[in-house]
């Protein structure tokens, strides 16, 4: 499902935690009415402690603070931290806590990442409140202002007040939340829309990407940490490359938090390379960012291109259709391509047997997981 395209927004690209963390913390510190946060990962540590302190400070100023965490992704949040949040007045809810009634239901996770301040300013990207995001992982976020923020707020409110979310925070807290779209004087705003998905039931992010892959005319650059593309996406990428589009993938190198996922995706490299797709593996650290560029269209947010994101998770991305923002994202891609190792098709075709065996092994596991519903 997706929201409407809305004009008059401002989007600011925030590559790397050194940029987006201070910007987000400053926004929370300046909040006057409300702070809404929705995260997949939150684990006790330095970042979670700093976040808890900022949220409690906001409550002390009279701000209404709502924190919606995934019931699985927040399992690493210690009881003492949960107590600090509750005692500090933060309304806390958990999406779909693990249960024994239906094991398959446990696969549905809230993977979205969102911070909204005063209904006027929002942030999304691939971030979470775990220490890896401080400096170990490469991540990207976007700061959003304008009419599209209201769509993010509505998305948050629906999940907060849904039967799948539980916890001490009252469901009714989201009723009557204030929205305050900010306008910038003399600024020609950008076009954007929110796109979301719920596993195999709603796949708007995937359909939107497929459409762009099939209609791109010049460039199609995709960055994703977990690249296990479906047959349809692989075919569309190959076709785009064959019709002359500059198709490039920016993927993690050997530094990876789930190496098995990397091997599962690498089994598709050969065919993509033969079709003319260029593949870059990022070297400095683990690249966890999720953003795509097709001509002047950008999609950035929580969605990976693996079966977890496409079949089970709740996901949400910000789409932007604007040449100025696209130029910024292209610049970011270029810098990251320069820090990557490009896979040479000839060398790849002569890779060792052990590598091929791992691709087969993890590929088989992945194919088996795909069948779970
Ligand atoms: O699921 P992501 O993309 O937020 O990444 C978090 C990793 O799964 C943690 O291992």
UniProtKB/TrEMBL annotation:
Domain of life assignment: Bacteria
InterPro entries: PLD-like_dom
Stretch forming the signal peptide: none
Gene3D superfamilies: Endonuclease Chain A
Transmembrane segments: none
Domain Phospholipase D-like: 26-160, 211-335
Pfam families per UniProt: PLDc_2
Name of the protein this chain belongs to: Phosphatidylserine/phosphatidylglycerophosphate/ cardiolipin synthase family protein
Organism the protein comes from: Halomonas rhizosphaerae
Organism placement in taxonomy: Bacteria, Pseudomonadati, Pseudomonadota, Gammaproteobacteria, Oceanospirillales
């Amino acid at each position: 499902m997706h929201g409407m395209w809305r004009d008059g927004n401002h989007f600011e690209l925030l590559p790397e935690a050194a940029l987006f963390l201070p910007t987000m913390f400053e926004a929370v510190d300046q909040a006057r009415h409300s702070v809404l946060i929705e995260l997949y990962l939150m684990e006790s540590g330095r970042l979670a402690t700093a976040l808890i302190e900022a949220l409690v400070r906001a409550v002390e100023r009279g701000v209404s603070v709502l924190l919606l965490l995934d019931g699985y992704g927040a399992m690493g949040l210690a009881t003492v931290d949960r107590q600090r949040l509750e005692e500090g007045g933060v309304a806390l809810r958990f999406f779909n806590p693990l249960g024994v009634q239906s094991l398959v239901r446990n696969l549905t996770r809230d993977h979205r990442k969102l911070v909204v301040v005063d209904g006027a300013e929002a942030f999304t990207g691939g971030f979470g409140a775990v220490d890896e995001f401080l400096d170990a992982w490469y991540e990207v976020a976007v700061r959003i202002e304008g009419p599209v923020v209201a769509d993010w707020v509505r998305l948050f409110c629906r999940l907060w007040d849904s039967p799948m979310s539980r916890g001490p925070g009252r469901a009714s807290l989201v009723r009557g939340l204030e929205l305050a779209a900010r306008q910038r004087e003399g600024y020609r705003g950008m076009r954007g829309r929110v796109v979301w998905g719920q596993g195999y039931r709603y796949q708007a992010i995937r359909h939107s990407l497929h459409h762009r892959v099939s209609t791109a005319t010049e460039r199609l650059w995709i960055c994703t940490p977990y690249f296990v593309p479906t047959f349809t996406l692989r075919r569309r990428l190959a076709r785009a490359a064959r019709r002359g589009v500059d198709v490039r993938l920016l993927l993690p190198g050997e530094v990876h938090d789930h190496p098995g996922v990397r091997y599962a995706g690498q089994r598709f490299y050969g065919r993509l390379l033969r079709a003319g797709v260029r593949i870059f593996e990022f070297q400095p650290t683990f690249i966890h960012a999720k953003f795509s560029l097709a001509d002047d269209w950008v999609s950035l947010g929580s969605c990976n291109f693996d079966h977890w994101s496409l079949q089970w998770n709740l996901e949400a991305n910000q789409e932007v259709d604007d040449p100025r923002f696209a130029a910024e994202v292209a610049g970011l891609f270029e810098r990251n391509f320069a820090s990557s190792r490009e896979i040479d098709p000839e060398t790849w075709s002569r890779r060792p047997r052990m590598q091929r065996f791992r691709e087969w092994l993890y590929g088989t596991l992945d194919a088996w997981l795909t069948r779970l519903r």
